[in-house]
């Protein structure tokens, strides 16, 4: 039971990524996401700046094919120097 997933693969899976406002943030995150999903459509990324403009949040929707893919992507995103939070 412990390894069972509540997600049925493959599926579209949104991920929210937040970080400090930086000129390369979106480009670097999109490049990283494309390494885990070759079919990722960068034109569908949603952007939202914080009220004060110090932070940016983006939502990417990937085609999740396995729990291993999602785990690896979350680990890569969480370890990126420009990323503060991944949901």
Given the helix and strand composition, which structural class is it? alpha+beta
What name does CATH use for the topology? Alpha-Beta Plaits
What count of helical segments does DSSP give? 2
The CATH homologous superfamily corresponds to ACT domain
Biggest β-sheet strands, sense, barrel: 4 strands, antiparallel
Task: Please state the second-level CATH architecture.
Answer: 2-Layer Sandwich
Can you tell me the number of structural domains?
1
Q: Give the strand order, joined by hyphens, for the main sheet.
A: 2-3-1-4
Low-confidence stretches: none
Radius of gyration: 13 Å
What portion of residues is helical? 25-40%
CATH hierarchy class name: Alpha Beta
Form type: elongated
Q: Sketch the topology as an H/E string, one letter per element.
A: EHEEHE
Number of strands: 4
Distance between the termini: 24 Å
Strand content: 25-35%
Q: Indicate the mean pLDDT.
A: 95
Plain-language structure description:
The relative contact order is 0.32. The chain has a 4-stranded antiparallel β-sheet with strand order 2-3-1-4, with helices on one face. The protein has 87 residues and is of the alpha+beta class. The two termini are 24 Å apart. It has helices at residues 25-34, 67-79; strands spanning 11-20, 46-49, 55-64, 83-86. The protein has one domain: 2-Layer Sandwich (Alpha-Beta Plaits), CATH 3.30.70.
